[in-house]
Structure formats: C-alpha cells, structure tokens
Amino acid sequence: MKIFKLLVIFASVGMISLVTEGFPQPSDSTRMLTSDAPIPLDKPSHASIPPFRISPPIEPDLGKLSHMNLLDTTYYCDYIDYSGGNFCYYFHAPSASGNDYYTMRFTTEGYVCTLLTAWIAVYPPYFTGTPDLEVFVWADNGAGFPGAELANVTIPFNQLPTVFDSSYVPVDYSAFNLVFENGEEYFIGVTTPDKSERISILTDDGTNGLGRSYIWADGIWYNRAASGMGDFDFCIGAYVCCNALLIASGHSPSINASSVSATSDISVSFNVPVVPSSIGSLTWLVTGQITGLHAGAFSYNDASNNATIDPVVDFAPGEVVTVTLTDGITSAEGVPLKPYSWSFTVATETAPAQFANKDDYSTGDAPHGVVPADIDGDGDNDLLVPNLNSQYVEVLRNVGNGIFEHVANYPVGTGCISLVAADFNNDGHIDMATDNISVFMGNGDGTFQPKQDYAGGNETYYIVAADFNLDGHMDLAVPNALGTNFSVLLNNGDGTFAAHVDYPVTNFPIAMAAGDVNNDGIPDLVVTNHFAAKVTVHLGNGDGTFAARSEYSTSAGPYGIAEADFNGDGYLDIATGHGSSITTDTVSVLLNNGDGTFAPYTKYRAKYSPLMINTGDIDGDGDIDIIAANVIGPPFRFWPMMAPGFSLPVLSIPPERSPSM
Known about the structure:
The chain is mainly beta. Helix content is 1%, strand content 38%.
C-alpha cells in the first residue's frame, strides 16, 4: 500500500498564473506528488519530493493555455518554484459562466486509489465569513472539466486557519468510500455554495502588473495590488491510499493464435500476487465456439504469480476459444482484477482442401445458415438451422461419422434468418438465441426449453454473442437494418437479458462480428452497412457500452462479415462478402493497422454475389482461410491464405440451391 499526497498550491509572489480579464477557459495538469509515507504538511522542496507522474502530464506553456499572451512563456505546467519554495501545479481557472472552481485534476495509472482526507488552506484570510467554501470531488466529464459530483463538504470560511505553512482545514472523505479507478480522471477542488459568489484568486503575470489580480472580500471585488492587501496563498491538498492495479500481464496461448493444440492448457501471469481461492470456474471462463463452456482443474504458483487451467474436455478442431477473466479475481491487497478477455483458434489437421460429395438433408422452407454446436455433449458437432419461411429452428443431431438425423423443430416466429449458440446461463449446456431475439435454454441432451422472447429493434438480421461487460456471462448484439442501429442486450447473469440499448451505425446494417480488434482485452463490434458500402467499428468500453463508430469503406453492397488474423500479426482483420441488393463478384479484406484501425480494403474476385463468408484453417497449414457462399451462382468459393495475401480461388463446391452460411 502507498500513501500519496496530492497538492496544488496557488500563490502570488514570483508565480505565474492566469489573469482575470475574460476569465480564461480551464487548463490542467495531471501530476501527483508521492512518497511511501505521508508527506509532512509543510512547504515541500523540489529536492525532497519529486513530481510523480500518474499519467503523462499536459505541458504546454501557460501563455498558450491562457490564449491571452499576457503570461511569461518561460514558465511551463511542470512545476513552478516561487520564493517560498512551493510547487505550483497548474489548475482549472474560473470561467465567466459562474462555474468557478479551483481544482486539481489527476488520474491514476497502475493504481486503484481511495480518497482519505482533503485539505484547504488560505493565507491571510481577509474575508469576513462570506463566502463559505465547498470542497468537492468530481469525475471528469470526458472533456477535461469537472463532471459528475461524487462528494462535497462545506467549510465555513471563518474556520479557515491563518497560518498557511502548517495549518490546514482537514476534510474527512473516508466515509464516502471514493475509489479512483485506473485510467479515469478526477478533480478535487473548491467553490462557493452560491456559484454567483466568486472566490477567484488570480494573480498577475509575474511582473507585479496592476489590474490583473482580484479577491473577494465583504461581498466586493478588490484589486489586490491596488488596495495593498498583500500576498494571498491558496492550497488544495489530499491524501489517497493506493494499491497496485491487478492485471493479467501475460498469457498462453497468445491472443488470436491460429493453430493452438486441442489439448492445450491455458495459463495467465499476474503482475502482483493474487488470492488463489479467487481463481475458479466463476471467475475464469473458457468458452469454445462449438464446445461451449469448459470445466477444468485450476492451479496457482505463488512464486511466479502464474495460474493455469487444464480443461477436462479437449477443444474442437478449428473452433474459436474465448477466455474471460472477471473482476472476481483479487490481489493479495484486495484489489479486483481489471477484467480481460482474449481468443485463439484451435488447429486443424493438414488436408488438401478437398471435400467429398455432399449429403443432402431435408429442412424447412428457406433455411438461412447452419450453426454447428455440440448440443448433447457427446463430442460431435450437431447442426442448428433457422428456417425463415417455416418460422422454426431445426435441430439435426450428429449420430457419429458426420451423419445427421432430425431431432426437433422449435418455433421462433417471423423474420428469423440467423442464430447464435452459446452457454448463456453457465450451466455447461449449449443454448441458442435467434435474431428475432428468442432465447432457448439447452437441456444438455440435444433438446431445448421453450423460448423466452425479448424486444429488439426494427428488422433484425445476423445476431452475435460475446461477453461485452466482462462479467463472465454471454451477452447479445443484433443489427437493426431499418433502424440504422444495432441493439445490445446484456445478460443479467442467469441467462435472462436486460432491455436492449441501441447504438447508431451508418446505413442498413446487416451483419456483425464480435472480437477484440485493438487487443485491449475488451470485445468490440464490427458491422456491415449494406447501402453505405462501409463497415463501422465500435470499440467496447468494457462495461457493456461502446464508443462512437469509426467508418471504413468496402466494395459495394457489404453483407456478411468475418474476423480473423489473416496476416499473422496478432490483430483481427476484417473480411466482408457482398451481394443481395446488387450483383457483385467481390470479397473485401481490410487489414488491421495494429491499433484497431484498418487499412483500405483489398478486393478478391469471387463469382455470383458472395453474400456470406466464413473463415477457418481449411487446409491445416496454420493460416486462416476464407470461404464464401455465392448466392446467385452455383458454387462455394475457397481462398487459401498464402502470405502476403490470398491466392486465387482454388475450390468450388456446388450446392443444391443458393447457399447461405
């Protein structure tokens, strides 16, 4: 545990500050003073207490920050010594709107901190009791200004001490249990209960020029220099108790690895010691795209802070496996883990990328896509088929050797063209959810319970599932073509879902893919916008919400979408199929720049409107390949990945009718 003292000092002697004319807009510094022990409450010296950077400071000169060209530009936001030896850290100056605060802005980096005490000191107090002071703590509003109020305490002004160097008014904040989260920005500052009563203490430009420094006294503004009222010092201080942030500092398999053994263990290294009992099936979840939630044996090495899970059941060849670490894992100091998730792809056997003759199975009317999943837990991939016109999902059970038998039909209502299979209630059984948002809980024997319906948007299309808020439970997202948005339904933790929250896209969203495109451990969403010829990327915030979209152009009419690491750099790339409203022969590939942004698309020629696409290591060479379903013409088309790009299509597989994946 470390005790940090946050200190902001405003002074008038030999110090640079903002001028009063026009009340310039706020500026800031993200600095903190630190020591392993509490710092004495006297004037610190530059030599004994160096600045501690919690996050990189903003360090333009004060003249630029004031936009008034009246300040000495040789001074910067680092620190400013004046004759008494105090540090000056830049602060938010009042604006003309009446929201007048003296604040210190700070953020934590690598620590989780709790505010214990704040202090206020003013010397000399030439006031008669008006106005009182309020000591506030605010969250940042996202634009560098105080936002949501977290706590405040009022101090009668006549209780402020008269000796600045050694006397402070302590303000106890321990009862508020204010926690400063890693990477978030906060403010501690003062204002008056009546915002019309300004307490601005603004000094000159260091040259003792008149007309630039005023104080409030007896309800009147005084020009301090002209009235001979002397020096005026103002200080905000705070103690915070900080513990090191707990993070997953390394793991194996690596993120987006493409040829992981089906028998692989999964290991995670932590940056600090953890409580071994906090590691288990409720806090560390391993989910196969086909095989579902995996149980396993957990172990922890105290010497290396390394934990391992040995899954009981092997992974399925070619499936994508997602590992989620929740905040239920805690450090020895009691700090919860910063939740983290990553995925990898299981290896397939080397093969010539040739397929045997097809076997036909009867389905309902207008089957749209096929989803493989082991719904009965026998280790074989079964099939789930949504039938648009028949308005039911058909279940085909694998009886072994790739032979399927019809088991049951589950009514879903109108408009169902897609579904996703996942374990929504973490009972070890595969469940399914359809794009018209009907959720069926699996019984584990290949059958499903009656559906639970949820409201969605306007004209839903291809649904996906992922743990968007990293709580260990799979959530849902579905595009709404006529609503020009997509809906997110967060899991309540028991397989039921909260009301949908919508996020805008560009134009007619059709399909989406969930994956971590910027490798920050948080699932993101990428959406095809059919009529806009774009994909939109929506970065996840880790709490189930998403940032504003970024747009990237594709060929005309993007429809289906898939994500995979095509070039082996460890980042997910994007591939889109095209067609439906237009006739096209294009598959678009957008390579990740390594930061969640994407390079311009490259076109690969298909034939006959390659509407839907999928990815996988078809030939077992360790690279991720693309396969496309061509709706207008007869064949499927297959592109093997051959560095530095994809080869020409090498395989056509004629289906009976226009295919969909």
